[in-house]
Amino acid sequence: xxxxxxxxxxxQPILKIEIPDDGDVFRSERLARSLRADLAPxxxxxxxxxxxxxxxxxxxAQTKGPAVxxxxxxxxxxATAVGTLSRMVVDVVKAWCARDRHRTVRLxxxxxxxxxxxxxxxxxxxxxxxxxxxxxx
Length: 137
Fold this sequence. Notes:
Number of strands: 7
Order of helices and strands: HEHEEEEHEEH
Number of helices: 4
Mean pLDDT: 76
Helix content: 25-40%
Largest sheet: 5 strands, antiparallel
Structural class: alpha+beta
Oligomer: single chain
Strand content: 15-25%
Strand order of the largest sheet: 2-5-1-6-7
Low-confidence stretches: 1-9, 56-63, 66-70
């Protein structure tokens, strides 16, 4: 995995991965770290902060201590062919979600988005395929 801060600043994101926080900030952060670890070995993938001009992660004021980021969003950048990489990212996300049928991840590419769950049915698989086709991924 390339250095996210040097490479991502000049690259265009291909996908944004949102993990719902469900009110538990620490669980969401743990899930984001887990998914990041699964995505790290993907060749040509760059995980990094959002592109310039992206608002920073939301922060929730705690009763004690500093504000805690509450937006476990992962930004995916490409150092290789976008279509192949997007499919590989989706496959990793689907496998990650399959470990716990209650996991849900939202993949966003521009104005289009799709949710991936732990137990996708045939209809959801078609929606994911349409998302990849429609976004040119």
